[in-house]
Specification:
Blueprint: H1 9-13, H2 16-47, H3 50-77, H4 80-104, H5 109-137, H6 143-171, H7 175-192, H8 204-207, H9 212-219, H10 221-237, H11 243-250, H12 254-278, H13 285-305, H14 309-337, H15 343-372, H16 374-395, H17 397-400
Helix pairs in contact: 2-3, 2-5, 2-6, 2-7, 3-5, 3-15, 4-5, 4-7, 5-15, 6-12, 6-14, 9-15, 10-14, 10-15, 10-16, 11-12, 12-14, 13-14, 13-16, 15-16
């Protein structure tokens, strides 16, 4: 536990390394959200195939699964901000290729898949390096608040990025890729301006061990419990894939209603990050994380059974707020419990679990809905999430009894 006085939100935003980090990460997140809309729309426009839309997600996930250990090793072996910079430059060049090919009218679905794969590779390396940077940048005792502010900026990008991408695509199909290129290049410049960081060098034995992150996670009950709790909670509790069914067939609201439902979790998350940026969780943080997951599951059940649009949107907002509490505690706990020379590899394992839970969670929801129907599927997912949280409280008492983060 730190004896230093934690920096407030205003002091953090006035801390130059953190401000540069926050701006760079936000620009990367904006670019990713813009790209998700532009690439999806362009693929469907070219092929008219729903299967090809699914392939886009698979192509993005494969690099994470294939390169997780190499990416984590790179984040620990090399200067992290340089790893992030290299990824942002690679992403900018890929966006330039997409913009040029689209403008020239020579773009094909194979080229888009190839570009998406390259973006997935860059993202696989960028994410663990970025996550491992934050503890080096945040003033002592302020990681929880810094995480909340960073998560809030990401939620803003999640809410507004797709709208910006759609607007740019409507103006000119090549425009969103040009915006992405500019954002990533500025992000790389801001990353370079973070300044000199005291990154711990990897120890001799650990520096060559690609799988040290897995070994470390398995040997630390609190970290293993934290990461696996997120995996199973999102795996069972994800209802995102079912939102189009709810909007059209259950709530009967149409495309506008679908947009509101998709935005509701991010709005709830943004409001919670604003609260956590001012008031950190100082007591019983392990129990608070479990309680947040339980609220997430209950909100999922309320959404599943709701017949009213206002209640459905409110349940999704509560779901997003509860998830943010869990995310902030989980990220802070994992980073603080991990030695600096291991943070890249542990972060890569965590990133793989998060990606796997999101992708597999959507797949699980779709399969269950096809077999049982949308409402039973969502109810079952919410109940399973609560059950997992209660079971994990018994299996990981060390995690449940964590009192403070810093």
């Amino acid at each position: 536990m730190s004896s230093a006085t934690p920096a407030g939100a205003r002091e953090l935003l006035g801390h130059r390394p953190f401000l540069f980090f926050l701006s760079s990460r936000s620009l990367s997140r904006f670019s990713s959200q813009i790209g998700a809309v532009a690439i999806g729309w362009q693929i469907y426009d070219l092929t008219g195939s729903a299967f090809d839309l699914g392939v886009v997600g698979l192509v993005q996930f494969l690099p994470t699964a294939l390169l997780v250990f190499v990416a984590g090793h790179a984040a620990d072996r090399f200067e992290r901000k340089r790893v992030v910079q290299a990824c942002q430059v690679a992403e900018a060049l890929t966006a330039l290729f997409l913009a040029g090919s689209t403008f020239a009218g020579t773009i094909s679905e194979i080229q888009i898949f190839a570009a998406t794969f390259v973006l997935g590779i860059a993202g696989a390396f960028e994410s663990p390096a970025t996550a491992a940077l934050l503890p080096l940048i945040a003033p002592q005792g302020s990681l929880q608040r810094a995480t909340a502010i960073s998560s809030g900026a990401a939620q803003i990008a999640t809410i507004t990025g797709p709208a910006l991408g759609g607007f740019a695509y409507a103006m000119m199909p090549s425009a969103p890729y040009a915006v992405m290129m500019v954002f990533w290049l500025f992000g790389a410049l801001l990353t370079g301006g973070i300044g000199r960081l005291q990154q711990a060098p990897a120890k001799d034995g650990a520096s060559v061990d690609l799988y040290a992150g897995v070994t470390f996670v398995r040997s630390n009950p609190a970290i293993l419990g934290t990461i696996s709790l997120d995996l199973f909670a999102v795996l069972f509790g994800g209802v995102t894939a079912l939102l189009p069914i709810y909007a059209r067939d259950i709530l009967q609201t149409g495309p506008l209603g679908l947009g509101i439902l998709r935005a509701a979790p991010a709005v709830g998350a943004l409001l919670m990050t604003m609260l956590l940026a001012r008031h950190t969780i100082n007591r019983r943080v392990g129990m608070r994380m479990f309680q947040a997951v339980i609220v997430f599951g209950v909100a999922t059940v309320v959404f599943a059974l709701s017949q009213w649009m206002w209640l459905s949107a409110l349940a999704l907002a509560v779901l997003g707020a509860a998830d943010t509490i869990s995310v902030v505690i989980r990220f802070s706990l994992v980073q603080l419990a991990t030695p600096d020379e291991m943070r890249g590899r542990v972060g890569a394992v965590n990133f793989l679990f998060i990606n796997a839970s999101n992708q597999l969670g959507q797949f699980e929801s779709g399969v269950t809905a096809a077999l049982l129907g949308a409402v039973p599927s969502a109810v079952l997912g919410g109940v399973a999430t609560v059950a997992v949280a209660l079971l994990w409280m018994k299996l990981f008492p060390t995690l449940r009894n964590v009192e403070r983060l810093e």
